[in-house]
Amino acid sequence: MKKHLLALSITLALASVSSLVHAQGNLAAGKQKAAACGACHGEDGNSLISTFPKLAQQHGSYLIQQLRAFKDGVRKNAVMSPLATSLSDEDMADIAEYYAAQKVSANAEPTLPPNDDDVKAADVKDPSAKKPATIETLLAQGGNLYRNGDIPRAVSACIACHGPYGEGNKPASFPALKSQHADYLIKALSDFKSDERSNNPENIMHMIAKKMTDEEIKAVSYKISTMK
Length: 228
Prior knowledge:
Layout: H1 2-18, H2 27-33, H3 38-41, H4 60-72, H5 80-85, H6 89-100, H7 135-148, H8 159-162, H9 182-194, H10 204-209, H11 214-225
């Protein structure tokens, strides 16, 4: 039954977003207009700061959708909301066209930050206590969750909407995730889980993220960051 409900939710989302008409932008104009975005997202859309998302090779339809959400106040961000307010539909289409034409850069092999693996064996008094996760175990866990989900807990497989290689779904405006920064993905999933972010069609990401543990969020984010 849960499997059918998840499938129905995804179908409804596809139907709602695929009906949107996305304007074709001008790449040359988009490069000029995107110059102001370079400080955070990188000149070619490959941000060097892991908390700012990479925009390179992202579907134009998704970028337009998000810029409209920032402009309309449906999605709120102290930096993006005022910037998007000044953009016309033509500006959004041009900027989206430029970033969609860029190639996303691969990430370095992920490593855990110091506060994730600094629990020493000598400090664990209970031998049966769960040992801290390693990057290898997190990548394996994240890969399994991405491909298979967790049906008993109604956590849908990421592959259903974002594709086997994290390429996303352009007609449905489901974003490409491959080679995205793990830190940004962790924040995005955490914001969906806490309702900090609320502009997801049919609330699919809310339903999924709310059932994920913090470790699962971290695991799948690290795995996605390695996809090319």
